[in-house]
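Entry 12.
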Amino acid sequence: QVQLVESGGGSVQAGGSLRLSCAASGYTYVSYCMGWFRQAPGKEREGVAVIDRDGITTYADAVKGRFTISQDNPKNTLDLQMNSLKPEDTAMYYCAADYDPLCYDSDYALKSADFGYWGQGTQVTVSS
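Predicted 3D structure (tokens):
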């Protein structure tokens, strides 16, 4: 059973930065497609970024050039570095994981949110 625990959320002013981290446990080797998603009040969950086992990344247009997804395989952690934050980035951010084949079509993985394992989320609030 895969368990995901997010941390690093908080409040920041527009233009600031935050780094989210997701600690993964429950499996003995990394062979997963992983991603970050977010959901703002009254809106549907949307994909932010995904990364496959080879480190290939895919980003939503809204965050390209500002956010960076990365993974530390020996530590089983997934990070999201968020720079130049905007008020519209305010949302609950979720870490997600699924078996690697999901990332064979990374655009689908990002848009569908068809991941089997999810964390509880961490809140990010950006004020203007």
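Annotation: Helices lie at 106-112. The longest helix spans residues 106-112.
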